[in-house]
Amino acid sequence: MERCEFDACDHKWKLALYTNGNEETNSKDHISLYLISVDSNSFDFDQDILVSYNLFVLDQVRDKYLKIQGVSRFHALKSESSFDKFLPLEIFMDPLNGYLLDDTCMFGAEVCYFVKQIRPKSLTITKNMIDATFLYRWKIEKFSELKDEAYYSQKFTGGGYDWELGNSLSLFLALADPSSNLFVGEIVHVTFRLRVVNQVKGLLHKDKASIGGGVRMTKSRNGMGWNQFMPLCNLNESSGYLVNDTCIIYADVDTGNEESIKYLW
């Protein structure tokens, strides 16, 4: 489902909504939301458009927005950017969460920054040319049975690098297998946000983000996070963060290069 066009930053856009996920991206049972450039075919072949944007859905009960930020490059061969698992369908359909009332919902987009860049005439494939933003969902079941000091999620790829989430009394984003992911002296500049889902209220909370334009990760310094991300006393059934002995964690990772980050902040 696609909505009518809208103008932002002297450019035309539209939203595409998949109400049960996009089959091509294995996102069944989720709301998938896409930002699409309508006139990307008018771009010069050597022109990139760096875009910072927010996609959101309205909580009609509390009059608040659930908002997720994205950063992506658009060009003649890439006209869309998406969050394939924007919101679990079960949470979206629950009227207590306010996203779907009287069979009506409201989605939106905000284009925050728009920078035109010219690619070199010679073709150089770099990791920064890969879509830089990635949202990962980690579902932890049988939480009360966890006994080890630390646990790690499955590896996931974002911005051309493999990552994993580490979880103890703290929560960290770590570069998976840095010895094989990075060359000697290579630096990955990354901004990220980690979230624990409130499964009762349907809000992405609690969340914390990297500050100061992001962090640098290397072979020896390959993880970053918070020792006291969230009090363990809040991980219980009544708080909504732990339901049926299960908690859900999201990681939003952006590996845009330093020049891109400087433009956006």
UniProtKB/TrEMBL annotation:
Give one Pfam family, short name only: MATH_2
Q: Which organism is it from?
A: Aquilegia coerulea (Rocky mountain columbine)
Record's protein name: MATH domain-containing protein
- The residues covered by the MATH domain are 1-111, 133-253
Signal sequence bounds: none
Q: Which PANTHER family match?
A: ANKYRIN REPEAT-CONTAINING PROTEIN-RELATED (PTHR46162:SF2), TRAF-LIKE FAMILY PROTEIN (PTHR46162)
Superkingdom as given in the UniProt entry: Eukaryota
Q: Highest lineage ranks of the organism?
A: Eukaryota, Viridiplantae, Streptophyta, Embryophyta, Tracheophyta
